[in-house]
Amino acid sequence: MKSKAQAVTHVEAVAAEASASRRLSSSSQEWLGKDQGGPAVDENRLKFAGTIPTRFTPKTGLAGLAENWRADLLSGFLVFLIALPLCLGISMASGFPPQAGIITAVVGGLLVSRINGSFVTITGPAAGLIVVILDSVQALGGGDAKAGYHYTLAAIVCASVIQMLMGIMKAGKMSAFFPSSAVHGMLAAIGIIIMAKQIHVMLGVKPDAQTLFETIGAIPASLRDMNPEVAIIGGIGLLILIAWSLVKSRRLRMIPAPLVVVIIGMALAQYYDLDDEHIYLFLPDYAFLPHHEFTIGPKFLVSIPQNFLSGFAFPDFSLIGSRMFWQQVFAICLVGSLESLLSSAAVDKLDPYKRTSDLNRDVAAVGFGNIICGMIGGLPMIAEIVRSSANVNNGARTGWANFFHGLFLLTFVALFPRVIHEIPLASLAALLVFTGYRLASPLEFKKTLAIGWDQLAVFVITIIGVLATDLLIGVAIGIAAEFLFHFWRSVNWGQVFKLHRDVVERAPGVYQVTIGGAAFFANYLALKGDLAKIPSGKTVVFDLSESWCVDHTVMENLHHFCDDYEANGGHAEIRGLDQHVATSKHPLAPRRRSV
Question: How far apart are CA 448 and CA 486, in angstroms?
């Protein structure tokens, strides 16, 4: 094992080799489904290759609009085509009126895009918030969906005030406290819940179920009793999404799959005459079918006000003194803030210009936007990863793409509400079922297992905890499981919240970060604050030779730091892991010193 002095003197050689070395794949990219193949990683020396600085960096503000309006206008229009059906589907799945999701996307595009701290993210309603919002509507409404809607708007306003204050108090770094496997377990559980609820809508059946497990158990009955014409619309939509995900043609993939699903669904709705309520016979000659008569009509289409302004609603704060109200407030605030931070950080990895978002400003801006949404009847918004990825792929350069996407949505819903009414609910349900599957696909379990069996255990425990209780308690159970695994590795209680670290400039422009003791998610925040003070464009060497153990979350965060640091013109290296034993061959697996 090389000494600290040797580690420092070796840095210049690392810098020379950096541009020729393969970049270690980031965990955030893994969760987006990127290819993670590559050569074996030297345990003693994890290097992060530098990114060639981009000569052209787009301007921001009005100068950025004048410079990049063509690219941003086109991307904004294409994202609008994706966002319209998703906003409607997410809103109805959350127990809100369909227009609520569009209100949120409009506020996110026209307002938040002008004050946030990111560059190419798209803000709007997201599938990850469906579960917590629907739970709030049901819990606060006590069976009255309309009352629950207005009470939940009040909870969104209160949660958003807290969210905005978090951003002002620079709480963006708090995302590092949550163990990665628990966070991804929460997202997978959300995916399972979305699928369980939306499959019934896609089949045109309302299940006789009160709890989540009853809803899951009712799926076979819904398959048996499905409304055939509605199920055909939903099934074809789902098949299109699956087929589109397998298409290799870049030109064909430029056409948004959700738009194709909606257009074909609208055509089938016209063919089956969903505008008029009527009874039809399906395969009456087959006696083995349980029944042949089915009712179909406008209730299977999106219902939206003809006047955009009439879709606004206002919060009811009459439950503000109750414990249940504040439980929903903190759930909305936690899930929304955490998912928005994770999404913004992930989108930064996709930005071809390698810009880094101001996460604190982003949280504050999203919180301010959510206050507006809660006051006028909208859902809470986050930095949404799917639409943001499409925004990058479509060539967006600045936040004006987000602005144009909101402007197109406002124009469409104000001028063409009748067109929105012709969209079948089954088509929107197919979009959400596919989204839920992507969150909880078997591939996510496989990727987590590749990191280590203990991380898979935390992942699964979190999923079970969320399904059996709720989001807050489920995540808390996942965090507790992570703690237990660390104590099982003989981590001392005294090392739980205090990380031994030392940041020293050993030579001009060369910073050595020595980490000792137990490095894991609960004590990483202090180190993150120290790293933020290191000037950009220098050389940073992490020496982990004195650490007793390093968990997956810390390995992931150190990698993200190195990735971002190199993108801004510096060099970074992790050393001192040759005496550590990893739980798997994955480069970001937890490690424990063997001697």
Answer: 17
> Distance (Å, rounded) from C-alpha 118 to C-alpha 351?
10
Q: For residue 4, what pLDDT is reported?
A: 38
User: Largest alpha-carbon pair distance within the chain?
Assistant: 86
Strand stretches in 107-195, DSSP E: 122-124
Q: Compute the distance between CA of residue 275 and CA of residue 307 in angstroms, rounded to an integer.
A: 19
Length of the chain as a residue count: 595
CATH of domain 4-40+493-593: 3.30.750.24
- Provide the Cα torsion 115, 118, 124, 127; round to 10°: -150
Q: Give the model's confidence band at 281: pLDDT under 50 very low, under 70 low, under 90 confident, else very high.
A: confident
Structure tokens at 529: 């604050």
Q: What is the C-alpha to C-alpha distance for residues 585 and 589, in angstroms, rounded to an integer?
A: 7
Which element (helix H / strand E) includes 504?
strand 500-507
Q: What SS3 class is residue 40? A: coil
Q: Are strands 510-519 and 539-543 parallel, antiparallel or unpaired?
A: parallel
- Token readout for 364 is 């504050």
- DSSP secondary structure string for all residues of 380-413: P-EEEHHHHHHHHHTT--STHHHHHHHHHHHHHH
Span 348-397, pLDDT tens digits: 877 888 788 888 899 999 999 999 999 999 999 998 888 998 898 888 99
Span 322-339, mean pLDDT?
92
DSSP structural state of residue 164: H
- Using CA atoms, how far apart are residues 111 and 513, in angstroms rounded to an integer? 40
What mean pLDDT comes out for the span 73-91?
Answer: 93
Q: Residue 346, exposed/middle/buried by CB under 10 A (0-12, 13-18, 19+)?
A: buried
| Residue with the two structure tokens 């004195």 | 546
CA distance 437 to 235: 15
Helix (H) or strand (E) holding 202: helix 180-203
Helix (H, G, I), strand (E, B) or coil at 592: strand
What pairs with residue 519 in β-bridges?
Answer: 550
Helices and strands in the chain, H and E counts: 25, 12
Q: How far apart are CA 415 and CA 307, in angstroms?
A: 9
- Tens of pLDDT, residue by residue over 228-252, are 999 999 999 999 999 998 988 878 8
Looking at residue 296, what DSSP letter applies? Answer: E
| Spans of all domains in the chain | 4-40+493-593, 61-434, 443-488
Residue with tokens 């935390």: 458
Strands (E), 337-480: 382-384
Closest to 331 (Cα-Cα) out of 535, 475, 544, 175 = 475
Q: Which residues pair with 46 in a beta bridge?
A: 574
Q: How many other C-beta atoms can be found within 10 angstroms of the C-beta atom of residue 339?
A: 24
